[in-house]
Amino acid sequence: MVRESYSIVVEMENAGTIDWHEVGVGIAALAREIKAATDLGYAAKPQVIFVHPGEVGETPLLQGEITARVPELGMAATVVFAALPDGRYYELKNRGIAEATGDIVIFNDSDTVAEPGWLPALLQPFRDARTVAVNGHTYLGHDDFASRTFALLWIFPLRDQDRRFAAKRAMNANNCALRRSWLASHPFPQNNGFKVSCTLLNQQLRAEGHDMVRVEALASHYPPRGLRFFVWRALVTGRDADRKYAALTSISRPARMAKALRRLASESWRVSLRIAVHAPGTGMPVWQVPLAMAAGLAFNSLVFVGQFGLAAGLTRDDVERIPAFVGHS
Question: What is the pTM of this model?
Answer without folding.
Answer: 0.94
